[in-house]
Design goal:
293 residues, alpha/beta
């Protein structure tokens, strides 16, 4: 007896009716801005291979981030600093291939790794071109201040950019570890200035990592053209992102306290991803009471 041929639109099985996402048009930058304008939360999740990318898209995730976090969760590195541009290209290409096979609609973001954009704006352009040609719709880079001109340079050349402030893992050694950023009045003021400069330079998404919830909410209300995506930054951001392995309860180290294990009570990975999407959309994740800042 032969097995039935799977539907190419749902190659990994069909979600139960309560978990199946509604049909949607492909996500684009205008659609993300429209979602933000009407108050709909944006969902983002990391993925590093074709299969998990397709499953995340089928679960209704809006944005898939091929993060340099793969250095820690896939390669076993102690930080993201050792991830190379060639490694990022490989994983972006793999994810993009999986999304094409699943007739996906998610927006695909690729991380520019440490050392791939620090030398010059021209170096940043060359590195961004590698990830865009591999299938990314947008690139992400970390830090404020000097990065604003790099963002402007890329955007003027047709490359959408997601910025990243707060805890920036590529500079974790300079920050003294994985610590909350923006807790003092001085550091909060600097973070706000950097965020506005990045928006003015053309960044159209901004990840805020381990930033006090009140500061994140304030920035979210101020940045009219650059939706904020929080991770350990409270519920007041325009959207949320988690590392895939964290939200599935699989972690080689200590689980961050702002993470929720969505596998608990879920019959499978697809359903856990859908539960994450639903919790972000309805505002039940994250829970600000879980944060000490």
């Amino acid at each position: 007896m032969t097995s039935p041929t799977p539907d190419p639109a749902t190659p990994y099985g069909t979600l139960p009716p309560t978990a199946a996402p509604a049909l949607r048009k492909p996500i684009s930058l205008p659609r993300l801005l429209e979602m933000h304008a009407r108050g709909e939360k944006i969902t983002m999740l990391t993925a590093y291979d074709a299969t998990f990318a397709a499953v995340a898209d089928a679960a209704g995730v809006d944005c898939i981030l091929v993060g340099d976090s793969l250095g820690m969760v896939c390669q076993g590195l102690s930080s993201t600093v050792g991830v190379t541009l060639e490694t990022m290209r490989y994983h972006v290409e793999s994810v993009a291939r999986g999304l094409r096979r699943s007739q996906a609609t998610a927006w695909l973001i690729g991380d520019l790794p440490f050392g791939a954009y620090h030398e010059s704006k021209e170096q940043a352009l060359r590195s961004a071109a590698v990830l865009m040609q591999a299938g990314a719709h947008m690139v992400k880079l970390e830090g404020g201040g000097w990065t604003a001109e790099t963002v402007r340079f890329l955007v003027e050349r047709g490359i959408p950019v997601c910025a990243h402030l707060g805890l920036t893992p590529q500079t974790v050694h300079a920050l003294g570890g994985y610590r909350v950023q923006g807790k003092t009045a001085e550091s909060a003021t600097l973070l706000k200035l950097q965020a506005h400069a990045l928006q003015d330079a053309g960044a159209t998404l901004l990840v805020l990592e381990m930033v006090p919830a009140a500061l994140s909410a304030e920035l979210t209300s101020e940045l009219l053209h650059c939706p904020t995506i929080g991770i350990g930054a409270g519920s007041g951001t325009a959207g949320q992102v988690l590392v895939l392995h964290d939200m599935l309860g699989v972690n080689l180290g200590k689980m961050p306290k702002f993470v929720r294990n969505f596998m608990l009570g879920a019959p499978g990975i697809r359903e856990a991803m859908h539960a994450y999407v639903s919790a972000v959309k309805d505002g039940t994740f994250p829970d600000n009471s879980q944060h000490a800042w």
